[in-house]
Each structure stands twice: as structure tokens, then as C-alpha cells.
Amino acid sequence: MPNTQSQGKIDLLRLLGAEARRHAERLDNAVWTNQFDNTANRRAHIETTGPEIWEQTQGKVDAFTCATGTAGTLAGITRFLKDKSGGRVKSFLADPPGSVLHSYVSSGGKLVERTGSSITEGIGQGRITDNLAPDIGLVDGSMTIADEKSIEMVYRCLDEEGLYLGASSALNVVAAKEVAEKLGKGHTVVTILCDGAYRYAERLFSRKWLGEKKLLGAIPKHLEKYIVLP
Description:
Blueprint: H1 7-15, H2 21-26, H3 40-56, E1 63-67, H4 72-85, E2 90-95, H5 101-106, E3 141-144, H6 147-161, H7 167-183, E4 189-190, H8 201-204, H9 207-212
Parallel strand pairs: 1-2, 1-4, 2-3
Helix pairs in contact: 3-4, 6-7
């Protein structure tokens, strides 16, 4: 497990009895799901999430964007929407700081060394996963979303929409906003809200943590009322 994961996630996995990959290899009736490179992940989004988006927008979706971890969500939804619309629907990859995928897409396929870090968890990559590889060529563009924008959106969504989102979901909202501004008025842009804040509250709403990450200045004054933890 990456050392960027929240204590809440670590505790939950321990509670559920999670063990290391090598245990699955040597124990009978044990399974390692390998979510990054098990393409059933991508296929699930081709068969379910993509059709759901198409149905709920009545086929009027113009673009889809989200960040990637395993990349099953981005790849599967992109593949379905591209096929269903005859290539009309655009796809944009959103990347946190420290990930190499924006650079890969914008450079036409050059993979650079991963540097830096982000407050987000579970998104961003240093390689092309097996879930992403078949569909990376379908992605129309990419962007890096700064942590300052993501943390501000965490607070904005809580205040303006009553949505208690984690930083990864907030990053996706920022990306959708930027894609909408790029495409212009009248376009429908879809993203995914992939995490809630309940596992990260001890960080996201902590004055000390925000200060340590140099993110206090990213919170508008009228939203500082939500910084309720020391």
C-alpha cells in the first residue's frame, strides 16, 4: 500500500483481514484481485457505467473527464462513449501533481519519471496500467489539477451543494469545470464522484494539516468555518 493512504483506509483493510499479495499466491482458495491490471475492471465500466451515463443524458453527453488510479473508469467509459457516439464524445484525463499521465498524453506517448506528490489518494500513476493501455489512444486531452484547486473545491462542494467529497472527487469536479469552460456554453460534461470525505476528514478539515501542506491560503475566507479540527 502506498504511504500516502489515509489511516482510515489502513484501519479498514486491517479490520477486513487484508493480507499481502504473496499470501494469495501460496494459500489455497485465496484471490488477489489485482485491480490495476485486471481488465474486468475496465470491462465493468464498458458494460455498466458507460451505458448509465448515456441513458441518463439521453445521449446528449459531449465530454467525459476523470482522474485515473487503476484507469478502469476512464478507459471503460471512454471506450463505450466513443463507440456509442461514433467518436463524437470527447475524453479528458485529469491528473494530480506527481502523476505522469498528463505528460504522457500531451507528449504523444513519452513516459517520464514520476516526481512530486499530491494530497489526493488512489489517483495518479507512474505507468500505463493494463486497464488503460487499450484505450489511451482514445483520450483527446489531459490536464494537471493543482492541489490548491482540489482542496478549494472540497470546501465549495460542501458549502454550495451539500456534498461531502474527498479530494479525488473534488479534483474531478475541477476538471469537469475546466473542460466545460474549454468547450463553451451549452455542452454537457460528465465526471465521477469517486470518494467521500469521511475517510479523510482528519486531514481535509484540520487547520494543522492544511498549514503543513501550505493549503490554508487556498480556502476562501467565507469557507474557513468548515475547518473544524485543530
